[in-house]
Amino acid sequence: MVLPVFIVLLWSATTAVSGRAQDSTAGERLPVVTLKKLDGTPITTQEFVAGSSGPIVLDFWATWCKPCIQELSALSEVYEEWKKLTGVRIIAISIDDARNSKKVAPFVRGRRWQFDVYLDENADLKRALNVNEIPHTFVLDRHGRIVYQHKSYAPGDEELLLDAIRKAAAE
């Protein structure tokens, strides 16, 4: 009787934490990986960190992921305001594979997202950051160190993300 109760409590604690901020990578630098721009041009993670003067939000997503699209659409609505407020740069990392990656550019244009979108067709960055489910969002400080991450999406999560961005901008 005690063992089943323990297992239920352990499972409940694990699932309660799974969608919230995770700090296992806090303080780690973004690994250097080559991605592709939507036009097929290669870009390294080192290049986009070096070209940023403020915090960076990396959001892993796919065209087939409804919560990802909800999150990125919500971020699109506040992006200009957040950029003025904190200097943040939002970068959406598509994990659509090589077969589906041709759909990404028209998909993004159709939604008029103003942030950068890069392709991780071989899942190199996804693997390097141990992203197992999407959406998965990271906040980096201006030095490319991970200061926050969050899995999943629910409306209102933008407030948690903005708090993390503000803290990263203040450092």
Structure description:
- This protein has 171 residues and is α/β, with parallel strands linked by helices.
- It has a single domain (22-170), classed as Glutaredoxin (3-Layer(aba) Sandwich).
- The chain has six helices and seven strands.
- The protein has a seven-stranded mixed β-sheet.
- Helix 3 runs parallel beside helix 6 (157-170).
- It starts with a helix and ends with a helix.
- Residues 1-24 have low confidence and may be disordered.
Helix-strand layout with pairing:
Layout: H1 2-18, E1 34-37, E2 42-44, H2 45-50, E3 56-61, H3 66-86, E4 89-94, H4 104-111, E5 116-119, H5 124-128, E6 136-140, E7 146-151, H6 157-170
Parallel strand pairs: 3-4, 4-5
Antiparallel strand pairs: 1-2, 1-5, 3-6, 6-7
Helix pairs in contact: 3-6
